[in-house]
Design a protein that fits this description.
This protein is mainly β. 6% of the residues lie in helices and 64% in strands. It is built from 2 helices and 8 strands. It has an 8-stranded antiparallel barrel.
Length: 196
């Protein structure tokens, strides 16, 4: 009885681990649900078999809050475990967001009448994070990433007229100058290989 020959390609496909494409582009889905919704695009570049550079950036606009701005998040990701279709990674990221917000406020005069004003102010936020998560290879045609991070962030606030009268109109901290806080983010991203 003649032994059946198994193609070498089949053996490679069964035993190979999760592999990263050289380049990917994608869309960050969680940025759409942010307080400042953003159309945020991503670019990933493989620098070794276990390491990737990633950058996400986008323009944000919020009609309700009359604000617009720009957000960017560069990161480096190191894979600690890879299966055939999934890779687990840890890494570091920097989040930077610049928002220009139109703030409407009122000033009372002698408790009898008031005037309304509008003020455009810049609100930068900068944070550094430790992150971790995993990517799933969706049949080689796309990659789905789910990750989260925690770290330290800093938000800058400019002075506001009549703060005690207007504090209820804004969900951000209103303390003048830089304020620090524990930062947390989650990330859901869908990306596609280039030149494959």
């Amino acid at each position: 009885m003649k032994a059946e020959m198994i193609p070498q390609d089949s053996i490679v496909k069964k035993t190979r681990k999760f592999e990263l494409p050289d380049h990917r582009i994608g869309l960050t889905l969680t940025s759409i649900t942010h307080i400042y919704p953003t159309t945020q695009l991503s670019y990933d570049k493989r620098v070794s078999d276990n390491t990737e550079w990633s950058v996400e950036a986008g323009f944000t606009r919020n009609r309700f809050r009359k604000a617009s701005g720009f957000r960017i998040r560069p990161s480096i990701e190191r894979y600690i475990l890879r299966d055939r279709y999934i890779g687990f990674f840890v890494g570091g990221a920097i989040n930077n967001m610049n928002i220009w917000e139109l703030y409407e406020y009122s000033i009372f005069y002698e408790n009898s009448y008031f005037r309304e004003f509008s003020k455009l102010r810049r609100r930068p936020q900068l944070g550094g994070y430790l992150s971790g998560g995993f990517k799933i290879n969706l049949g080689g045609k796309a990659f789905l990433e789910l990750s989260s991070g925690i770290g330290q962030s800093f938000l800058f606030n400019t002075d506001i007229e009549q703060l005690e009268e207007n504090i209820g109109f804004n969900v951000w901290s209103e303390r003048n100058g830089w304020s620090n806080r524990i930062g947390f983010y989650s990330n859901l991203n869908l990306s596609f290989p280039l030149n494959q």
